[in-house]
TrEMBL record:
Source organism superkingdom: Eukaryota
Pfam families: TPR_10 (PF13374), TPR_12 (PF13424)
Gene3D superfamilies per record: Tetratricopeptide repeat domain
Protein name: TPR-like protein
PANTHER family attached to this UniProt entry: AAA+ ATPASE DOMAIN-CONTAINING PROTEIN-RELATED, ATP/GTP-BINDING PROTEIN-RELATED
Length: 856
């Protein structure tokens, strides 16, 4: 019943009794020592097991000879302990000797020989030497089938071992085919309740789980759990393993409460039966850590992760694979929490140890390199990340093959780094390859395929290919909903991604509808303090911002900031991002002091946590510079913009999107300072680069052309401005559609240009179109709508249509008062214009505010 502690107590007495009565070299004494060593192994006492097994092996070699079956069995037992200790070279040396001697003494086809081949194959598998492992596995299956027949337990064991190897290689169809055969034969020959049958069902369930076929996995695991509980009892190790497997499947389905409840049960039972320091106990706690990480309960995850590491450090050799795995898991928790220095420190330690013990090309070593690269990426050290990830992809292709899941995961990580560097073409190429391979190997509805499609769609979004991005995100959402249901985390993510596309397309009602659904579902399933819930709230607030619903946005953002501070702390990236979002809302409301206060705090925190040259620090500085510019503190803004641009050029390179953004910001400041030549030089550079890299129809290119046209306009170089503005508006209408925010913005700017050229009828025609479109899309009270009303009012006033102009300006003034407050500069200007017009004192005003003006 798994009562190993009681067994140990009895077996120690037996060993002492036989040693005293029969002597230390008697066969019965050696058998009792072997039994005690086996119990030590089950209790995780591998060093005690090793000491006994070495003694037994040496005694048998001396008394029975090198080739006696009992001697070879002792060698195999010791090799198994070495394997458990991660001492694979020593294990392999012994197992090669055992297999060769078995073949010589018993022949190639003896069951003991086949078992020795299986043990050596397993050690090869642990070392990532899969070709050698497969050669042995296939030979074992072939001999077993020929000599023992399909239904012999040894044949079934050989087939199961080979299936396990296929699973490790990501060859799930091959694994499933073998495992189905094993389950069918075991059920027929041994019965449904036999431990071997239940073990084969559990193996098949694992293969289903790895394929993302969670319902099928759960169905099998429930059967296994029911049968093991019935036949072995609740506290048997096999029953507890079944519970842990089922908990894992439920965690992957996003059913975290059920998973946690089950894993806690396992922990409590194991605490009572095997104690807190047993490897199986540490494995259960590690399962809890994963559940807590998924739920964003990082403090609890970190506490348990440290507990596991401290316990395993005490029990295991510093180079033991399990200890290194535990260090890697804790590093992942640190990475989740934004504690990248601690993560990097642990990952470097794990990497160095694995290189030393396993070699540079072992799968675990390569995984360590991939983890370190991920931490570098999070820190904005993209060059270092890309170098490591390129190496990871190359090595995995060589060792595992191009279609292995780990190879594809490495490609996705490298694509993510390329995206961070603004190298969208390279990212897209990799992601397209990944999606095509996953569709072919895993099928359209595998979780990894769905995630790959979403990743590719996000790159298309960055490239401005919104229609194609929408199509891909919609495909991912439909597949996820069909496969996992509406409330699965992957479905939520797919819906949130699709909402992002809608937001970028100016389809804010559709974006809002989806975001509200996602927020409600995440609040219900994850709780209101989960990081994913907070991200959903931020997304919805962003959509409200776009609609000019500042109060709604502010209300949500204040909640998010407070919760982030409470749950994640002031220095977490999500906290900093939510603070920046709130500052933007303040800025758009004209509450510049509030915005500045938050942004100064963000700059200080980012500088302290990430360093002065980290991308997040530079973004926070850019936000502050924007606020200074809005306050008319142009020299301060200029100094900050120049500093940011210099660092981004040096750190990110001339062609990185963030570098372009810095050039645009500095050009904007130059424009505010009336330094037209400097503004123009920068804007020409940005536009030409966007044209070359992104093409003439990309939203970034359209924006950069708009900016340059605006600079020409401000300089009264109206012909040059028109040469850019007319084709630009036509491009927007053709590519983005008549009602896209960028299209309406370019039409408004062109109307403003016509106004300054005295072409008032043309200006009026465009302004009416823009105003009506904005009313329909955003509503009458949106700031962009009010700007359109303002501009049309001025055009009508210039045509002498005073009554119409005054009516529109009154509407604009009241709308701005309601949205921005009576003291906001734009509100004040509207009321001043209205007062002058009513008094007849402003017959010919040149006062025009375009929709491109900051803060509107």
């Amino acid at each position: 019943m798994g009562r190993f502690a009681q067994a140990e107590e009895l077996e120690v007495k037996v060993v002492q009794h036989f040693s005293a009565m029969l002597g230390s070299e008697h066969p019965e004494t050696l058998v009792s020592m072997t039994n005690l060593a086996s119990t030590y192994r089950n209790l995780g006492g591998w060093k005690e097991a090793e000491a006994l097994e070495v003694e037994v092996m040496k005694t048998r070699m001396k008394t029975l000879g090198q080739e006696h079956i009992s001697t070879l069995t002792s060698m195999a037992n010791l090799a198994s302990t070495y394997r458990s200790l991660g001492r694979w070279k020593e294990a392999k040396e012994l197992e090669v000797k055992v297999m060769e001697r078995m073949q010589r003494v018993l022949g190639q086809e003896h069951p003991f020989t086949l078992t020795s081949m299986g043990c050596l194959a397993l050690t090869n598998q642990e070392q990532g030497q899969w070709k050698d492992a497969e050669d042995l596995g296939l030979r074992g299956v072939e001999i077993s089938l020929r000599v023992l027949g399909r239904e012999h337990p040894s044949t079934l064991a050989c087939m199961s071992n080979l299936a396990s190897l296929y699973r490790d290689q990501g060859r799930w169809k091959d694994a499933e085919k073998l495992e189905l055969q094993v389950v069918e034969i075991s059920s027929k020959v041994l019965g449904m309740e036999h431990p071997s049958t239940l073990s084969s069902m559990a193996n098949l369930a694992t293969t289903y789980r790895d394929q993302g076929r969670w319902k099928k996995a759960e169905q099998l695991e429930l059967q296994v759990l029911e049968k093991t509980t019935e036949s072995l009892g609740k506290e048997h190790p096999s029953t507890l393993t079944s519970m842990a497997n089922l908990a894992t499947t439920r965690r992957l389905q996003g059913r975290w409460k059920e998973a946690e409840e089950m894993e806690l049960q396992v922990v409590e039972i194991r605490k009572g039966t095997i104690g807190e320091e047993h490897p199986d106990m540490l494995s259960s706690i590690a399962g809890l850590v994963l559940i807590y990480r998924d739920q964003g309960r990082w403090s609890e995850a970190e506490k348990l992760g440290l507990q596991i590491l401290n316990t395993s450090s005490k029990l295991l050799d510093q180079e033991h694979p399990l200890l290194l795995t535990n260090m890697g898991n804790l590093a992942a928790v640190f990475r989740d929490r934004g504690q990248w220095k601690q993560a990097e420190e642990l990952e470097l330690k794990v990497l160095e140890t694995r290189k030393k013990t396993l070699g540079d090309e072992h799968p675990d070593t390569i995984t360590s390199i991939a983890n370190l690269a991920s931490t570098y990426r999070k820190q904005g050290k993209w060059k270092e990340a890309a170098e490591l990830e390129t190496y990871v992809v190359k090595k995995r292709e060589e060792v595992l093959g191009c279609e292995h899941p780990s190879t594809l995961t490495g490609m996705v990580s490298l694509a993510l780094t390329y995206k961070s560097q603004g190298q969208w073409g390279r990212a897209r190429e990799l992601e397209t390859q990944v999606v095509e391979t996953r569709k072919r190997v895993l099928g359209l509805e595998h979780p990894s395929t769905i995630a790959g499609v979403a990743s590719l769609a996000s790159t298309l979004l960055c490239q401005g290919e919104w229609k194609e991005a929408e199509k891909q995100f919609a495909e991912a959402k439909e597949a996820s909903s069909r496969l996992f249901g509406q409330e699965h985390p992957l479905t939520h993510t797919s819906m949130a991604n699709l909402a992002t596309v809608y937001r970028n397309q100016g389809r804010w009602k559709e974006a809002e509808d989806l975001e509200v659904q996602v927020l409600n579902m995440r609040t219900r399933t994850l709780g209101c303090k989960h990081p994913e819930t907070l991200i959903s709230m931020n997304n919805l607030a962003s959509t409200y911002q776009k609609q000019g619903r500042w109060k709604d946005a502010e209300e949500i953002e204040l909640k998010v900031v407070r919760t982030c501070l409470e749950v994640l702390g002031q220095e977490h990236p999500t906290t900093l991002a939510s603070t920046a979002s709130l500052a933007l809302t303040y800025k758009n409301q004209g509450r510049l002091k509030n915005a500045e206060e938050l942004e100064l705090q963000a700059v200080s925190t980012c500088s302290k946590v990430f360093g002065h040259e980290h991308p997040d620090t530079l973004t926070s500085m850019a936000n502050l510079a924007s606020t200074l510019r809005k306050q008319g503190r142009w020299e301060e803004a200029k100094g900050m913009d120049m500093c940011i641009l210099e660092i981004r050029k040096r750190v990110l390179g001339q062609e990185h999107p963030d570098t372009n953004t810095s050039m645009i910001s500095l050009a904007c400041t130059y424009r505010d300072l009336g330094q037209w030549k400097e503004a123009e030089e920068l804007e020409v550079q940005v536009m030409e680069r966007d044209m070359n890299v992104l093409g003439p129809e990309h939203p970034f290119t359209i924006t950069s052309m708009n900016n340059l046209a605006s600079t020409y306009h401000k300089q009264q170089r109206l012909d040059k401005a028109e040469d850019l503005a007319v084709p630009l508006t036509e491009t927007c209408q053709r590519v983005l559609g008549q009602h896209h925010p960028l299209t309406l913005s370019s039409m408004a700017n062109l109307a403003s240009l016509f106004y300054d050229q005295g072409r008032l009828e043309k200006a009026e025609e465009l302004e009416r179109q823009v105003m009506e479109a904005r009313k329909n899309i955003f509503g009458l009270e949106h700031l962009d709508t009010l700007t359109s009303i303002n501009n049309l009012a001025f055009t009508l006033k210039s045509q002498g249509r005073n009554d119409e102009a005054i009516g529109l300006m009154a509407q604009c003034a009241q709308g701005r008062k309601k949205k921005l407050g009576e003291n906001h500069p734009h509100t004040v200007l509207s009321f001043q214009a209205l007062e002058h017009w009513v008094k007849g004192l402003m017959a010919d005003s040149s006062f025009v505010i375009t929709s491109r003006a900051p803060g509107i």
